[in-house]
Amino acid sequence: MSTLSSTDAAAFGKVGVLFGGRSAERDISIMSGTGVLNALKSHGIDAHPFDPGTQSLAELEAARFDRVFIALHGRYGEDGSLQGALELLGIAYTGSGVMASSIAMDKITTKKIWLAQGLPTPRYATIEPGVTDLDKVASELGLPLIVKPPLEGSTIGITKVTKAEDLKAAVDVATGFDKVVLAEEFVTGRELTVTVLGQGENARALPIVEIVAPEGNYDYNNKYFTDDTKYHCPATLDAAITAEIERIAVEAYNAIGCEGWARVDVLLRESDNRPFLLEVNTSPGMTGHSLVPMAARAIGMSYEDLCVEILRSARLKIGQARG
């Protein structure tokens, strides 16, 4: 870990680390935020915890933060709502702005933009419970297929459907989180993820991480609470395939206007080594099992230095900083 001088650390001003929140990913956010807070403090930065799940926007304004590191996951933190409040309060923040955050949070809207840009993503259908013909969805997408709530993360509410008669039950699970449901073609292949840092022409991909979960099931438990899942970084891939995955990841990131940092999830189809984009996480996990720090380590960047680099990119996207 490189060490900031006291002058450089002071230049960040008073920093808030926002974590916790009210989403289904609250517990993971607390783990991420605690790690980020400790990392920033280790550099001498004047960092303080703030939980929007238990503290009000009035308290956020009263804290007089010069900038904040968003370590919130899911609704009310990763979906543009908090970003809008920070713009109104004039507090610089990490990650993407209001529009990019809200688009990335909605997997259906994200897919529409990617397809319009000619980027590869699995075929899909939007399901309105009680309205959509489920047999038709199963017939058009084929089986197995994946059913998921389009506004959730951390594999919450996701079901793999192998029989048409199980589709309704999977939809019922997903509607416990969202009113509209995403059904997606199941792509058999390798699970990969790409961290992207920066903005626009300066956006760059970090080394690709491959995820090898027990029985191919990268669920909530295998993602955060087990050591059985294996990770390979950099992923063992042909140079041309690596370059193609990094290219489409950066293009996917830029297509929805991401900036600062994000993680792009990709499937590499087994039959022909063709990559397919799944989703973008604009406030990725920063826990001990998280993939962004893993990718950073592969280029010699410590967890602490990664947190500082992300914090350094904090800014307002619409207005001007307070004062």
Provide structural commentary:
This protein is an alpha+beta fold. The protein has 3 domains: 6-95, Rossmann fold (3-Layer(aba) Sandwich); 103-120 and 188-306, D-amino Acid Aminotransferase, Chain A, domain 1 (2-Layer Sandwich); 124-185, Dna Ligase, domain 1, CATH 3.30.1490.20. It is 34% helix and 22% strand. It has 12 helices and 14 strands. Strands 9, 10, 11, 12, 13 and 14 form a 6-stranded antiparallel beta sheet that branches. The protein has a 4-stranded parallel beta sheet with strand order 2-1-3-4, with helices on both faces. A 4-stranded antiparallel beta sheet has the order 5-8-6-7, with helices on one face. β13 (259-269) and β14 form a beta hairpin. α2 (26-42) crosses α12 (303-312). The longest helix is centred in the N-terminal third of the chain and has 17 residues, at 26-42. The protein is globular and about 60 Å long. The relative contact order is 0.16.
* Secondary structure category: alpha+beta
Q: Write down the overall geometry.
A: globular
Find the count of extended strands (DSSP E, 2+ residues): 14
In helices, the fraction of residues equals: 25-40%
Radius of gyration over C-alpha positions, nearest whole angstrom: 20 Å
| Poorly predicted tracts of residues | 218-225
Count of helical regions: 12
N-to-C order of helices and strands: HEHEHEHEHHEHEEHEEEEHEHEEHH
Question: Could you give a short account of the major beta sheet?
Answer: 6 strands, antiparallel
User: What percentage of amino acids are in beta strands?
Assistant: 15-25%
According to CATH, the homologous superfamily of the largest domain is ATP-grasp fold, B domain
Distance between the termini: 33 Å
